[in-house]
Sequence to fold (302 residues):
Amino acid sequence: MNEPADAQPKRPRRRVSVVGVLGELLITAGVLVLLFLGWQQWLGDIIEGDQLYHQSVQQSQEWIKAAGPDKQPSDPAAPPVMSASLANGKTFGTLFVPRFGANYARPIAQGTALSVLNKGNLGHYTMTQMPGAIGNFMVASHRKAYGGDLEHINDLRVGDHIFVGTADGWYQYTFRNLQFVKPTDVAVLNPVPDQPGLQAGDRVITLQSCNPFFSTAERVMAYGTFDTFYPTSGGPPAEIAATVNGKS
Amino acid sequence: MYAALWRVLPGPWWTRLLILLVLIAAVLAVLVFWVFPWIGALTAPQDVTVAPGA
Fold:
């Protein structure tokens, strides 16, 4: 190879060695691994969370458009309950939690397989009830990565509102408490969570993720109780209106 | 390897630096938007649900 003809005193070039190239390749590999970790633990959730937010806003707007202005408002005390016979992976709802930020909106899909959860969905346990039904509407999600849907689950405070939007409207739940259990503790899936055999009388929502942070050793549950239903035709509840309309 | 890349790039040092920065940005974009999500889907499938057994 010829040196460029222009100026500058030539320094003797170090000869290319196998070890030298190998070293550079190893350093490159190390940097790539660190970049991947940075993406997985931080940047990825920001990017994917933003995509999920926009996807959810778009879905909400489609439902609002489809509802039409003439539909009769339903009774807030006895909200409509949609059919549970949905295809696996089908998106049927959107989760809004003001405590998680004004830009927080996440899709809720049927089923809890990893193929559903790894798309950033909150997955609905098919053996639990649907939103607004008497019993337990329970969804699971990753705590970190894949959108980190429930990263801040432990930030919920008593009285915080949790909204589930569907084609029918918005179900408002009020956060009540957290519970920590082992991954095999399936009693939390009961219509009255953690109380097998009891007849359900309340409408409960359960958000479930992993605990502690960066670990899958335990499961954390956030329970809420239903208090109001806002039909689609009446527009989103004021607390989440800006988020639903993508203006937050 | 990287020294060879530096020599192959044309122009004065600041042009080379500019080209290099653009190349790095392009590589990072490809990694973040395509490669990492793909690897993320393949690796470390974490079970986050409650289920009997195990």
In short: Chain B has a mean pLDDT of 88. The two ends of chain B are 49 Å apart (CA to CA). Helices of chain B lie at 2-8, 13-42. DSSP finds two helices and no strands in chain B.
